[in-house]
Amino acid sequence: MATILLGIFILISLIILGFYFAFFSFVNEKPSAPSNLNSPVSVIVCAKNEAENLKTFLPSILEQDYPDFEVIIINDASMDDTLEVIEDFQALDGRVKSVNVQNNEAFWANKKYALTLGIKKAKNPYLIFTDADCAPQSKNWIRYMSGQFQGKKSIVLGYGGYFKDTRSFLNKLVRFETLLTAIQYFSYAKLGNPYMGVGRNLAYTSQQFYAQKGFANHLHLRSGDDDLFVNEAATKENTALCYHPEASTRSIPKKNFKTWLHQKRRHVSVAGHYKRKDKFLLTLFYSARFFFWILFFLLLVLQFHWQITLIVAAVVLITQAIIYTKAAKQFEETDVVWFFPFLEVILIFTQFSIFIANSISKPKHWK
């Protein structure tokens, strides 16, 4: 039995190495310089009860070094002063446009409905999306993102990170999970299989949106306005990547495990609607890492060829460390790399518990 377990452990390790060697195609490439196309752009922000965040972060969008853009702020049936804050910004800056969404029985608390109204309001063909609690990390954010709309490219995947809190362990876990997710979706897209993007930093053309009939195929799902849209519409030919540090955004992470777990449950539930090949690859990747750690500890306890077990594990961990270090430098998340084995174990078993929880009950969606 121990021999069989060791053989399975080695096979799983080879599967993991296969994934991480594939990730080299992305982490070894340097980001491109910004374009000087300067095409008219509409930045779209959906806000639900985000009055304070708009006051804090909207100026960083309005201060962008770009000659021709408007900002569409969608008030999605907020209960706070969001609408009043938007109107105050409108009075100060003519580039700010508002869409006021009222709840209705058919689309109650549906972010996709609100986004659709915002997209219809936009006057420009190039759309960049972010959240109300997000801040571009440079004044060239729009320039980098919009500059990717060249040739047949109609979808641009960007990096949406989180603000750092060096005193918080949860903050490191959240940012490590975000880093790992970015490595995956950028790498898969680089290899010709774009499968998701994040609404904190995403762009596509209005033509692509209407050609896809918007969110019609998954409008009944409350989440997935970003990743499900990309999973359905993105191809090797129409998708561009934008991962320069100046093209990233950062937002406020969850402050406690309960709210973070609820957020992750929503994301996992949406992933179940991805294309079959994408679900297979994601399931294989996470399952392999889960059983890697289970078998690693089990073989050490059994002390069966423990030297081989340690050597195989060392090869896997060193390969992961190289990938994480390169990606972390790219996305300015280097402080999480030092803890990655510990963070990975916690993340894997957390995800396993989320799968179990989602199989029992469905999580709630959009605020």
TrEMBL record:
Pfam families: Glycos_transf_2. Keywords: Glycosyltransferase, Membrane, Transferase, Transmembrane, Transmembrane helix. The chain crosses the membrane at residues 6-27, 280-300, 306-324, 336-357. This is Glycosyltransferase 2-like domain-containing protein. InterPro entries: Glyco_trans_2-like, Nucleotide-diphossugar_trans. The keyword Membrane applies. The keyword Membrane applies. Belongs to the glycosyltransferase 2 family. Residues 42-169 form the Glycosyltransferase 2-like domain. One of its GO terms (molecular function) is glycosyltransferase activity. It comes from Salegentibacter echinorum.
